[in-house]
Amino acid sequence: MRLRFTPVDTTFYDLFAQSAGNLVDGSRLLAEMLVDGSDRAAIARQMKDAEHRGDEATHAIVRRVNSTFVTPFDREDIYRLASSLDDVMDAMEAAVDYVLLYELDGLPEGIEDMVDVLQRQADLTAETMPRLRAMRDLEDYWIEINRLENVGDQLYRKMLAKLFNGSYDALQVMKLRDVVEQLEDAIDAFEHVANIVEQIVVKES
Amino acid sequence: MRLRFTPVDTTFYDLFAQSAGNLVDGSRLLAEMLVDGSDRAAIARQMKDAEHRGDEATHAIVRRVNSTFVTPFDREDIYRLASSLDDVMDAMEAAVDYVLLYELDGLPEGIEDMVDVLQRQADLTAETMPRLRAMRDLEDYWIEINRLENVGDQLYRKMLAKLFNGSYDALQVMKLRDVVEQLEDAIDAFEHVANIVEQIVVKES
Amino acid sequence: MRLRFTPVDTTFYDLFAQSAGNLVDGSRLLAEMLVDGSDRAAIARQMKDAEHRGDEATHAIVRRVNSTFVTPFDREDIYRLASSLDDVMDAMEAAVDYVLLYELDGLPEGIEDMVDVLQRQADLTAETMPRLRAMRDLEDYWIEINRLENVGDQLYRKMLAKLFNGSYDALQVMKLRDVVEQLEDAIDAFEHVANIVEQIVVKES
Questions:
Q1: Is there a domain that residue C3 lies in?
Q2: What ipTM is given for this predicted complex?
Q3: Three-state DSSP state, B81
Q4: Of A51, B150, B157, C68, which residue has the fewest beta carbons closer than 10 angstroms?
């Protein structure tokens, strides 16, 4: 039950929306990378750009939170929300990096399902950020993100079982696992974002 | 030196005790899994149940901390304690999952010693949670947990040396390492719980 | 805009300087370990000593922050700064441990470049900690640490590409990767320290 002075600085919502928008771009780039014959070097460059834009949004949030007297919700929560959005992008970018670094051509079937989960999480998160301001009707968002994380977790385990089923040599398993693990990390990071939003809403209500 | 209003909500202690009780169940299930001929699928289901109970306890703590005006100690510390207990369970469950996922039959000798450390940490933590209320005589607890973590660390290194001594092929090493690493993570997570308890006590004293 | 009572306890700066000093020792020990014919067991013992000194500094900081009424900056930030310095040491020590544990003799060329980055980050961090007190002219510090982290990241990727280029068998790749990953973690942890310092400065300004 914190005292609430007006005006509350609302730029935060725009910055969070920006940050989530970059994650939509990132998940789309991951999907493009899986298309045969895609220009992976170009995709990696675009991913790097998306990551830079994300870093800028995060820095803008941090500076603003430190220079604003009245924030729309707790400073600590604003930090945590910003950095958890950041974590998603870092994992997405690392996945693309590993594909290029290891010059992985044919990626095993099933990866596209994980990327599909990521795209749905990204879209939902981007739709939700502007609605943080109203602080209402957000429960469906975090329930669905958590459901998608469970789906992603099952897909991840299936991928691991596939990698270890003997059809890949050990070095190949290690390389592919690096990619798959980053996708799993990104899916988990989206759930972390949703958990933070849930906590913020519970506090405010 | 925070002002202290009465009554302080004491349900937190019960919830922490519940959460730690689930870790006792989890460590017991890990020990059962190592017994030859154990029904691993059944054990994995029971572990999943224990994890769900743990998640519920954590959620109950989070909701209560957000809806309670006077908490027995700092909100942030309550969050951190709850989520660090959660981390232990996640690592325990992941260990069991990997054993099933990889259909690992004979686990290398030495793993049972790591699980034994986990059981002792779990029992000690469960005994201690109800005593958080008195905030007294907790030093022996965190000293012993830290000692057990050092023991576990030595066991972990011995396991790694064994996995890499040439008697396992690379894929097998990767699979077994996943299991062993989760046990090590669980042991570390218990130490993290103890560190948080220590900080809380120091603050309150 | 926190109220500022005098006197502010300034012991914190000395303790942070001590902690950073241990990281200079640690990075030097890593460099020695790479010299052919170095006494690695002795180096590991010295690294363990440096880590213990680091733990003591961290504990001193935690106890002081909890027993001091007026801290030079936010309690939470002091905790985070202390534990992020701690993370650097843990990663450095783990790297040395893996080299001994796996009895790795010839380490691949390129590792010395990563250690060089670590030494430069450590020196710069140690010079900077005492200057936290003045809270001025610290921007060059975090810009350079971030630049060094980018250099380290490139070196890490080159090392990974080298490990996976087919000239090492899978078990050897796993062992060497453990070492290289810890070096990368230490380099990242230095960046994390710098990010926390930046946030503290922005808050105070």
A1: no
A2: 0.84
A3: helix
A4: B150
